[in-house]
Amino acid sequence: MNLKDCHNFSDFRKLAKKNLPSPIFHYIDGGADDEITLKRNTDAFSDCDLVPNVLASVGKPDLSTTVFGKKIDMPIFLAPTAMQRLYHHEGDKASARAAEKFGTFYSMSTMANTTIEEISNVSSGPKLFQLYVHKDQGITDDLIERCKRANFDGMCLTVDTLVAGNRERDHRTGFTTPPKLTLQSLMSFAMHPKWVFNYFTHEKFQLANVATKTDKGTNIAKSVIEYINEQYDPAMNWKDAEYCVKKWGKPFALKGVMSVEDAKRAIDIGCTAIMISNHGGRQLDGSRSPFDQVKEISDAVGDKLEIILDGGVRRGTHVLKALAAGAKACSFGKMFLFALGAGGQPGVERLLQNMHDEINRNMVLMGCKNISELNRTKIIYRK
Which of 261, 271, 330, 354 is deepest in the core (most CB within 10 A)? Predict the structure, then answer.
């Protein structure tokens, strides 16, 4: 199996599983606790049906939309995801180049393995930075200032990771950052010599944007869960979020909003967007899916800020349903990480091309000339 055989999420997942050592694959693939929310994130789309209009003379539909003050060529973008160096040795650089090629956002995680400045140099496309509030405010301030100097277009603050979710797969596989050989994982690493060669012959693994501020998770073997629990501020509150919004001074989203009440408070503190997200089902298991919440949140605040659905997207039809329900765009993480693991930058490009083609084809089949024509008349929720 190779990239030309990858036509959907399942195909990219299968090839990534072939290429990656088991602890690395399962870190992408898993969720919290019983993984009920992880599954629900995608299943929720099946509770809603599309209603097409025919003979609409669509021609070539316009897939563009505007988020974070930037016009993008299609209503999807790469969500911020940590430690992409684990999935392919080019990591964030590969993802950023692929996103630029398709005229959409690349998003950088605080826990990236590439620096803010390096990404600014390799990509002139639209860029979003995902911020975590650390216990050491100096780290938070430093990240914001560096993003300003590097001309990032937007920022999102992740608010659903005050403590790490209970990701039991990581306990079982012995996943650590950086990876280390254990009796559990030795066989899996031995069976993936290409990954091992690329990992040890390219740039050293580090959390590049915080490496000079803390050695947690960089110079010593430390699990990602331990890093989160040691470094992130579990007492973060709305005043902290407002501080970040004002310090940034440009388009800003809260990532992890799931309720109407919190969406309204995001407006009050000056946010221009929210990302409806449950962290890919990796935090609070048993929570609602993002798609379950889009309609209600959109009805309450959709004319006051941009709504981005983050989580569970696997198909172009999922994007159309989200937009019809009230989202401005969708972001996804798991799917493009599997594409990255499957084939680096060419893998991410193939995925983005597949998604572009699906959205384009389905817009024609729906009878929609542009994104704004995707509205509530185009969907019906099942009882």
Answer: 330
CATH topology of domain 3-48+75-356: TIM Barrel (3.20.20)
Q: Residue 100 and residue 335: Cα distance in Å, rounded? A: 18
Give me the amino acid identity at 330.
C
CB-hemisphere CA count at 13 Å for 265?
14
CA 255 and chain centroid, separation: 10
Taking the C-alpha atoms of residue 161 and residue 170, their distance in angstroms, rounded to an integer, is: 17
Whole-model pTM: value is: 0.92
CA distance 213 to 87: 25
User: Rounded distance, CA 216 to CA 208, Å?
Assistant: 12
CA distance 174 to 73: 40
Tokens describing residue 217: 């998770």
pLDDT digits (tens, 9 = 90+) for 223-256: 566 667 777 777 789 999 999 999 999 999 999 9
Quick one: which H or E segment has residue 27? helix 22-29
Q: Which residues are catalytic?
A: 279
What DSSP character marks residue 111? T
Q: Residue ranges of the domains in the chain?
A: 3-48+75-356
